[in-house]
Every structure is written in structure tokens, then in C-alpha cells.
């Protein structure tokens, strides 16, 4: 088994094919999209491949240590940040091919006009523990 | 096996152990182990109504006390506190019904002690008073079980020096129960129902109008639960809810409890909040809502709390009672970085007839939404306005 992260971006991914902001969809299209995402996660739970899924707020803060006895420095959010993660789904699957297949399904979530968004999702393998057998 | 019965017995079993001389932290661990053993080991004899010989079901409380005490002694022994154990064994009272003193209230005070952080107090209350297992609490709050176990044992260390027989702070107890209710995420354990159960139990242990106020508030909000989400999981705002799906039993009970509390003329924030909820419950339709009275209750409420949520909700009430322009003026006096400020502004602009501004603000509010259900709701609001006025 291998774990993969499916990353969804607010910004930073190439433009989707059906690239219409969600507030320009009809309320029914929004509901259909949400349902598709929920059903997708539920199906992966059924197959034993779901690990975790979370959504992130678009605005965050950068923080760094500023020396002994001083409060941390905070900065941002930066409007110019190129890469902005919207959320993720972690899956545990048998193969890279299966991970690609699932990412493709998730990218087919319906958007404006009820048509698939064809959104670009980023697929990243988790680094694993070293195997027991090494030779 | 009745899990709820076991959970109901938890605080009295725990206080019996403490009264026998066990320290709170060790007693609490022992009760938890006894509960887990009961959950695992008790066969379904009680459901069949034919408990076999030696079945613990005939006297569940006696069984729990015996097993918890044994667990406690085992743990003490394992700690090689031999001398202390022998003293305790000698002190052990004869088996049989415990004294009638109910220390449940003291347990609430201890678990919501002001020295605890809110998350620690919530976890400790759910375990020591609610009788939930660490695993159940961890699931409910979506954290790993080991994390929740640590949180609970740190909380117990924090209160280890607190004397059990001291009067506690009722306000922090109410705040903890309110938190459990308000953040009752879904899961195997219905934390909303659990918060109501624990508040009901508290109300029998202490006679205070704010405890009654909190219980009424919970019942009145819980009554709307079925109407609050659409079949697709999306949020249904109060004004659009199918009031026929409200739980009239819970409403009747909540209003009766509230009226009895208000008659005692010791108003507090929970009674005032419950009064607002009662006025909504009283309105057969959204249009018939008595917003003027609701506004008066919000004015009362601001005497007790400077919560930004209350001030925002007051601006909504102003908008309904005196018109959207007045609501926007009330809103302008508030910090626009408050959560939901933008969503309230969007609503008031729409009511004032400025649909373009409302749509823009709904979309902005959706980006700031703290959860997916609200984000979805606000995005739909923006979409609805964008579709009908392109």
C-alpha cells in the first residue's frame, strides 16, 4: 500500500477546463458538486482507501521565530503568493495507477452547467518508513 | 447492556471511590477501566430480561463500584504504594449501598475548574461526569486517541491539588456545557444530546436560574435540529426552516423551564439567550417573529456579555425590527473583522434592495466562512443573486 496526497489549489494549479467561479454557478450546481465530493469520500471509505480529507481557509498567516524572549513575527497573508492550497484528501492505495485513477475521478466533479470541472489536482506520494527487507 | 445507564452511574461511582479515600485522578482512571470492562464484558442479558447468576446487570452500580475499586487497588499496588494500599483496604467500607450524599455537583466543579483550559475542561467533564471513553471523546473531536488521553491526564494533574469539598464556580461549568453543546460535531457520539443530558443532570443537583436558562436554551435550539439541514446536507437558515419539523415537545419543555427561571427575577446571559430562542419558537411563521421583543432581549443580553456574536445578532435584530438601513447603521458601529460580519452585511444589503452589493458580500463572506456548510450556504446565496440579476 502507498499513501498519496491529492492537493486542491485555490491558486497555483493550471487553469481548469470548466473554470467558472463557484458564485457564478446555480445553487443546484453547487449542491451537485458538494454531493459529488461527499459521495467520492464515502466510496473511498467503503473500499478501504480513504485516510483523511480536510479543507483549508484561503487566508492564513506566516509566522517565524524572532529570537529569545521576543514574540514570534507574523506576516501576511500575501496576495501575491502563487501557490495556495485549498484542501487535501489523503488516500492509501495499492498502486500509483490507482492513485491517478482516483485523482481523475475527483477532478471530474461537476461545476458550472453541470459539466465536469476538469480541475488540476496535484498528486504527491507520502515519504514512507524504510522497509524491513533491504536486500 | 445499556450504555447510557452506565454513563449515568459514572459520577456517583466516581464520587464513592473518592469518598473512600482514592485520589481523584486514580479514581477516575479506575472508573474508566471499569466502564470499559462493563462495555466489553456485559452480555446482552439485560435486553433479554433474564440476568443469569452473578450477572452484573442486577446491580450495575454495585458492580461498577466493586470493579472500579478493585482496579484502583490494582493500580495502587502496581505503583508499589504498598503501605498506602493496606491502609486503604482497612478503611474499605463494607459492600452495600453507598451513602446518600451526592457529590455529582462537586465533580462538575472540579472538571470545569477555572485553572483548566476550555478544551481540557470539556474532555475531563465528558469522561469523568459523562462517562464517555477516551476513544469516544477523541472521535467526537476528531483527534487521535493518544492525544485525547494526554489532554485528560494533564487536566487531572492540573486539578490534583483542588480540594473536592470546596464550592466551585458554576459559571465555568455552564460555559463548558455550552461549549459541548455548541461544538457538538457529528460522530458516533451525539455530543449535543450529551450536553443536554449533563445539563439536565446538573439542574437536578443545583437549583439556579442560569442552569435552567442554559437547559432551556439547549432544548429550544435542539428542537430545530431536523429543520436545520436540507436532505443534501446544506444549511437551512432560520427564516426558511420548515417549522412543522421543529420538535414541539422540546419547545414546550424549554419554554416551561425558561418561564419558571425568569419568574425568579435573577436574569443572566443564558436565560436571555433562551428568551430569544423562545420568541423564534413562538412564531408560527418567520414573518410573524416578534423582532421588537427579540431586540429588547439582545439589549438585555449586552448587559451580561460583550460577545461579538451577540452584538452581530443584535444588528440583525435591529435590521428586522427597524429596517435594513437601521441594521446597517448598527453594523457600521462594529468591527468589520468580526466573524460573520460580512455575511450579516450581505443579508442587510439584500433586504435593502441592493442585490449587486449583497452578491459581492455573500461571495466575500463565503471565502471567510469558518466551515464548509456555511461556505456552501453563502456561495449559494451569492449564486442565487448572480443568477437572477446578471
From TrEMBL, chain A:
This is Uncharacterized conserved protein. Residues 17-106 form the YCII-related domain. InterPro entries: Dimeric_a/b-barrel, YCII. It holds the Pfam family YCII. It comes from Streptomyces qinglanensis. Belongs to the YciI family.
Automatic annotation (TrEMBL), chain B:
One of its GO terms (biological process) is DNA-templated transcription initiation. Keywords: Sigma factor, Transcription, Transcription regulation. Belongs to the sigma-70 factor family. ECF subfamily. The keyword Ligase does not apply. Residues 108-158 form the RNA polymerase sigma factor 70 region 4 type domain. Residues 5-79 form the RNA polymerase sigma-70 region domain. InterPro entries: DUF6596, RNA_pol_sigma70_r2, RNA_pol_sigma70_r4_t2, RNA_pol_sigma_r2, RNA_pol_sigma_r3/r4-like, WH-like_DNA-bd_sf. One of its GO terms (molecular function) is sigma factor activity. Residues 170-261 form the DUF6596 domain. The lineage of its organism: Bacteria, Bacillati, Actinomycetota, Actinomycetes, Kitasatosporales. This is Predicted RNA polymerase sigma factor, contains C-terminal TPR domain. The keyword Secreted does not apply.
Amino acid at each position: 500500500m502507498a499513501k498519496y496526497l491529492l492537493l486542491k489549489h485555490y491558486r497555483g494549479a493550471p487553469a481548469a477546463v470548466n473554470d467558472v467561479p463557484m458564485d457564478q454557478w446555480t445553487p443546484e450546481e453547487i449542491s451537485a458538486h458538494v454531493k459529488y465530493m461527499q459521495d467520492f469520500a464515502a466510496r473511498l471509505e467503503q473500499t478501504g482507501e480513504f485516510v483523511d480529507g480536510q479543507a483549508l481557509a484561503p487566508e492564513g498567516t506566516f509566522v517565524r521565530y524572532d529570537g529569545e524572549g521576543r514574540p514570534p513575527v507574523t506576516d501576511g497573508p500575501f496576495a501575491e503568493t502563487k501557490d495556495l492550497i485549498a484542501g487535501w484528501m489523503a488516500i492509501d492505495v495499492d498502486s500509483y495507477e490507482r492513485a491517478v485513477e482516483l485523482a481523475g475521478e475527483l477532478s471530474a466533479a461537476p461545476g458550472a452547467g453541470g459539466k465536469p470541472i476538469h480541475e488540476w489536482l496535484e498528486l504527491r506520494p507520502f515519504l514512507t518508513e524504510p522497509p524491513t527487507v533491504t536486500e | 447492556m445499556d450504555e447510557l445507564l452506565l454513563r449515568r452511574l459514572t459520577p456517583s461511582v466516581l464520587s464513592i471511590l473518592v469518598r473512600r479515600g482514592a485520589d481523584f485522578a486514580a479514581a477516575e482512571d479506575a472508573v474508566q477501566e471499569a466502564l470499559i470492562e462493563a462495555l466489553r464484558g456485559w452480555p446482552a442479558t439485560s435486553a433479554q430480561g433474564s440476568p443469569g447468576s452473578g450477572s452484573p446487570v442486577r446491580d450495575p452500580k454495585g458492580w461498577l463500584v466493586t470493579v472500579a475499586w478493585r482496579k484502583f487497588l490494582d493500580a495502587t499496588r502496581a505503583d508499589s504504594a504498598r503501605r498506602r494500599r493496606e491502609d486503604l483496604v482497612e478503611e474499605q467500607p463494607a459492600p452495600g449501598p453507598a451513602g446518600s450524599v451526592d457529590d455529582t455537583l462537586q465533580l462538575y466543579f472540579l472538571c470545569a475548574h477555572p485553572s483548566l483550559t476550555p478544551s481540557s475542561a470539556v474532555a475531563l467533564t465528558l469522561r469523568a461526569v459523562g462517562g464517555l471513553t477516551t476513544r469516544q471523546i477523541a472521535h467526537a473531536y476528531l483527534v487521535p486517541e493518544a492525544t485525547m488521553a494526554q489532554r485528560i491526564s494533564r487536566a487531572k494533574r492540573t486539578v490534583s491539588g483542588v480540594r473536592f469539598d470546596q464550592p466551585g464556580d458554576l459559571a465555568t461549568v455552564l460555559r463548558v456545557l455550552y461549549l459541548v453543546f455548541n461544538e457538538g460535531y457529528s460522530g458516533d457520539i451525539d455530543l449535543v444530546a450529551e450536553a443536554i443530558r449533563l445539563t439536565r443532570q446538573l439542574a437536578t443537583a443545583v437549583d439556579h436560574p442560569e442552569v435552567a436558562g442554559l437547559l432551556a436554551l439547549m432544548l429550544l435550539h435542539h428542537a430545530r435540529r431536523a429543520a436545520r439541514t436540507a436532505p443534501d446536507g446544506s444549511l437551512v437558515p432560520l427564516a426558511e426552516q420548515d417549522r412543522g419539523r421543529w420538535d414541539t415537545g422540546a419547545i414546550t419543555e424549554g419554554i416551561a423551564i425558561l418561564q419558571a427561571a425568569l419568574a425568579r427575577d435573577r436574569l443572566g446571559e443564558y436565560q436571555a439567550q433562551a428568551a430569544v430562542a423562545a420568541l423564534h419558537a413562538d412564531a408560527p411563521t418567520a414573518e410573524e417573529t416578534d423582532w421588537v421583543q427579540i431586540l429588547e432581549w439582545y439589549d438585555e443580553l449586552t448587559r451580561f456579555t460583550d460577545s461579538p456574536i451577540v452584538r452581530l445578532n443584535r444588528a440583525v435584530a435591529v435590521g428586522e425590527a427597524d429596517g435594513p438601513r437601521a441594521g446597517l447603521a448598527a453594523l457600521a458601529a462594529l468591527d468589520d473583522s468580526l466573524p460573520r460580519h460580512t455575511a450579516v452585511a450581505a443579508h442587510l444589503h439584500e433586504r435593502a434592495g441592493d442585490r449587486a452589493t449583497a452578491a459581492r458580500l455573500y461571495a466575500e463572506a463565503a471565502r471567510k466562512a469558518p466551515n464548509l456548510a456555511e461556505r456552501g450556504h453563502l456561495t449559494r446565496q451569492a449564486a442565487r443573486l448572480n443568477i437572477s440579476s446578471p
